[in-house]
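In this section we walk through a basic example: taking a raw amino acid sequence and producing a predicted 3D structure, encoded as discrete structure tokens. The instruction is simple. Fold the sequence below.
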Amino acid sequence: SLFSHKVLFPFSAIMTDVAPKKKYTHKKYTYRGVSLEELLDKSGVELMEMFNARQRRRLGRGLNVKVRNFIRKLRKAKTAAPVGEKPEVVKTHLRNQIVMPEMVGSIAGVYNGKV
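The resulting token sequence is shown next.
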């Protein structure tokens, strides 16, 4: 056979070379070089200045009732979740929703036409 030479290593020698598994470090969110904490502190007008023209136009026209209810449900799910746990999924049909800084960390289940 192709592998006629067998090299035997003691299993303990292999395991001692393996580094211990690193603990997961949470991803730091940024938008155009601005951290999430700074984005949350900005006012709506300051945020709109950072967005592209299409997002500025849409936000300048105001948020309708559906979008406001969706954001309210995201906030409610986030506050109801225990510390360190993921919040519940908030289902929506709003496929063209702009992701605002306060939505980061929430889970949105967007309807895709199937289930």
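Looking at the output, two observations stand out. The longest helix spans residues 65-80. The radius of gyration is 23 Å. In the next section we compare this with other chains.
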